[in-house]
Write a structure and sequence with these properties.
about 280 residues, single chain, 11 strands, about 15% strand, alpha+beta
Length: about 280
């Protein structure tokens, strides 16, 4: 809960600076790039975009200074090193220590290089809304990314939450009210996959903390929350390693513990930013 409480002000400071909440990145395989700024131009996850607002600006700028496409080999290796750098605030202490863990994913890095070593992880995910996480099919590069034409099937109206592929959602767009709308919460996991490197597969925890929009970093309220369960592969679900509860930070920055038995319909509508459910 304390980690999420610290992320609330960070999200709002980002909004104060840029006019919108942190973006969800481009999609699976794309990693954060310090030379790509913030918002829809940033291919990496929202976790990268909040770093300056949790006193980690130096990490944001660590490999900055070589803009352009294609990304050079040396920079790709450095961005891979960034992917392996853990941030304590992004780990739930009830689940695992803030370390890099062996990678299990079958992914194709687009702008960074994975040498096969461990990757840092995250236990908190943004709310994309009420529909499936999905997998954006992309032909994007740094030169042609400024249109949804390169993100086939995904436009600015596709997701109904706050943090998703290329999102730039402002407070004024959250007409359901910021105190009623999910922003970031704990993700469900397969306990056998907590520490990576096992035969257990969890597609929502296999690509590292800085990859763009995918189940590692965003989830949907359209799927029920549940406790971490062996044998599951909860790519869309929120949940936790806690008994009976999971923690959620709302768009006003407040954080609360919610029951894992929360009514599915109530859970769903909390994920949408403009569903008008509070008026019905």
């Amino acid at each position: 809960m304390n980690n999420l409480r610290n992320l609330g002000p960070a999200f709002h400071q980002h909004h104060d600076t840029h006019g919108f909440f942190p973006s969800g990145g481009w999609g699976s395989g794309w990693g954060a790039d310090p030379d790509q700024g913030f918002g829809r131009s940033q291919p990496g996850s929202w976790l990268f975009s909040v770093l300056p607002y949790i006193e980690l600006q130096t990490l944001t700028d660590l490999y900055k200074g070589s803009p352009g496409w294609p990304v050079g080999n040396r920079k790709q290796l450095r961005l891979g090193q960034l992917m392996a750098t853990p941030v304590e605030m992004f780990y739930c202490p009830s689940r695992r220590a803030p370390l890099a863990y062996p990678a299990k994913g079958r992914f194709s890095p687009q702008n960074w290089r994975h040498g096969g070593g461990p990757l840092a992880r995250n236990d908190y995910v943004g709310c994309l809304g009420s529909i499936s996480v999905g997998m954006p099919v992309m032909n994007a590069t740094y030169d042609n990314h400024d249109s949804y034409a390169q993100f086939k099937g995904y436009d600015e109206n596709y997701f109904d939450g706050v943090v998703f592929a290329r999102s730039e959602i402002s407070i004024r767009q959250i007409s359901d009210g910021t105190s009623n709308t999910y922003m970031v919460g704990e993700k469900a996991m397969n306990p056998d996959a907590y520490f990576g490197g096992t035969e257990a597969v969890d597609f929502g925890d296999d690509e590292g903390w800085l990859t763009g929009h995918n189940g590692d970093n965003v989830r949907s309220s359209g799927w029920p929350a549940f406790a971490d369960t062996i044998g599951t592969n909860p790519y869309n679900n929120w949940g936790s390693a806690h008994a009976g509860i999971f923690h959620m930070m709302f768009a006003d920055g407040s954080t609360t513990a919610l029951s894992l038995d929360i009514d599915d319909d109530v859970h769903l509508v909390h994920g949408t930013r403009a569903g008008r459910e509070i008026n019905q």
